[in-house]
Amino acid sequence: MSIKLWLVLGQGARRFHVAAALNAKAKVAMSRFEPNSSINYDQLRSNIDIVRKRLNRPLTLSEKIVYGHLDDPAGQEIVRGRTYLRLRPDRVAMQDATAQMAMLQFISSGLPKVAVPSTIHCDHLIEAQIGGAQDLQRAKEINQEVYKFLASAGAKYGVGFWKPGSGIIHQIILENYAYPGVMLIGTDSHTPNGGGLGSICIGVGGADAVDVMAGIPWELKCPNVIGVKLTGTLSGWTSPKDVILKVAGILTVKGGTGAIVEYHGPGVDSISCTGMATICNMGAEIGATTSVFPYNHRMRTYLEKTGRGEIAAVANENQDLLVPDSGCHYDQIIEINLSELKPHINGPFTPDLAHPVSDIGSVAEKNGWPLEVKVGLIGSCTNSSYEDMGRAASLAKQALDKGLKCKAQFTVTPGSEQIRATIERDGYAKLLRDVGGVVLANACGPCIGQWDRRDVKKGEKNTIVTSFNRNFTARNDANPATHAFVTSPEIVTALAIAGTLKFNPETDFLTAPNGEKFKLEPPTGDELPARDFDPGQDTYQHPPADGSGLRVDVNPQSNRLQLLEPFDKWNGKDLEDLQVLIKVKGKCTTDHISAAGPWLKFRGHLDNISNNLLIGAVNIENDAVNKIRNILTGEFGGVPDVARYYKKHNVSWVVVGDENYGEGSSREHAALEPRHLGGRAIIVKSFARIHETNLKKQGLLPLTFSNPADYDKIRPDDKISIVGLKSFAPGKPLEAIIKHSDGSSETIELNHTFNETQIEWFQAGSALNKMKELQK
């Protein structure tokens, strides 16, 4: 069956114009707003058949979709965890904070138009302050220059533009672009959200997005596959969020690195499509490449309810492609019985510190964590579905019926304009407001630090509970003393009503104003609205057929946007006497390397945003943040200030770090900034996947200690020479000569994961430089 979908936005409602024609091929033109975008299930099947014959074994679902998108299925070497795959993703999605740099890089490439369907989503630059409408209007005024740039760049280069207020990128993708068997890359680490609809959706840096938009095969190390077998049935207070909270506790923040997490088993059918998306979304917190669920009736129902019934029909015909083969092999198996799973809450300060909700009160008391819940926050890209909001509203109604409101402050973030409009129509939003909630804009908001929080002072110890996905130090409100816990929207709502971590809604009683003791009944909520979704306001701008005559202007005096200059090429020599800029102690996420929150406004201006380089990292020399020794002057200063001083005096430098360096966000600014300020290499015990790739893309050397104990040999004032670069080759370690200030030296071995193409990026100065060389 060949189905072409043209979806036109207008007059505040989506009008669906469907033309369907039967033929021998199972080809779906899956193209919300892009009629020429298509996936050919026949091509997917052909590629899978070629690979299956070569490997002569059953395939997992993730292998089917990934290998089904190989550029050369007949010739590609395929070894899990070792070889690099050259892939052809179907589409690209970019959120506004990362899209600025991605589009600036695409402009630098000199190409006239994107080669695959691509979209920009305005969700990161809206600060939560007062309420949805006011905050959105304020954001439009403050960010006018950036929005104009993104809209005009999208129009010129053929990229769809979702305006501010449309919703969070991942919810928009689920509602419009994800479907079973698609491969999508997105410039946000929580892109795997689309795995809830049977898609392989992978978070990447902007330079990777540029490759795909340029029509270049995209490289990914062949993932291992972790199988999570689900049995039993979800019920009561237990929610889909508890599955990933449990998995995070098992695998930790780096246990999924280099792997796709594939859920399977009879328990899958008890989880809604949006619930599966929640689980896949937070899979980013275990370092997984992505996560995915097999196609089933819950996905079919969601497709039908979001206007894509024709796609569901074709997926039904090709269901054998969209589920794992019987007898397929997983590199690791985790089994979870949903009938026995209890509600969980993870934190503080890391998303893998898992606790049953029944234990968190006593654990908090033991550790000196504040028991009072100051703020409860529900929504975000992880948990803002119609079902999530309905279950939270059912608890709000119970409290209101007894005369209770939230003791804590309470905020609600709808995931999309469609969700906002529908929960307003169906009364959920009113219930959540009546219980004390403030409905924020359809945007990321507090989840990424876009929160003008004023109820506590910076440095004041306090507790917040959220239904978000990430809870690193100071992430939500820029306060390092805030103890942030992540859990389900239902548990957040219950704890906000009770006002304390010591409340277990499964067993504990609340007291009504009249003195009556009562327990909250387990939450309930419809998976999808009984009526169709209300699409709300028209928020999409489709690019013109020909944008070649349009201009995209960047004011040279702007402090928000800056055209990029190419990085310098490798000079053909070893890197001699690199000064250690900082030896980082402990966890160093991309939030530590390139903070978000108020810094988001500079994401399109490389020089300005470089002023936040590593300001959150802990210096092992003094256990201080943003205070390092300038070896040239002997004085202490901020990390970016010292880096700029070194650059001005032609001193190249290196960063030394610990385990899982660069975990968290996909933001490539964490790689662009060190390159811009004179960094040449990052040497650590281990890297998070996306950050390691981003560093390679920008011409830096991400290297790991062959012996992790060698981390201890490096002193904060050392110089390091990296030798062996003239014979730099895949699989061949490099050497580092550590030169101490007392005149002694030591030599250690450094490993790397560069392949031949990536070595060419280093030699050219960046992947973008190499792309431009190939165009000549």
Structural class: alpha/beta
Averaged pLDDT, please? Answer: 93
Q: Kindly provide the radius of gyration, computed on alpha-carbon positions and rounded to a whole number of angstroms.
A: 25 Å
| Sheet with the most strands: spatial strand order | 26-31-32-33-36-35-34
Distance between the termini: 42 Å
Poorly predicted regions are 1-37
Strand content: 15-25%
**Strand elements, count:** 36
Query: What is the overall shape?
Result: globular
Largest sheet, in brief, is:
7 strands, mixed, barrel
Walk me through what this model shows.
The chain is built from 23 helices and 36 strands. The protein has 776 residues and is an alpha/beta fold. The chain has a 7-stranded mixed β-barrel with strand order 26-31-32-33-36-35-34. Helix 13 (386-401) runs parallel beside helix 16 and helix 22 crosses helix 23. The longest helix has 16 residues, at 386-401. The model is unreliable at 1-37 (pLDDT under 50).
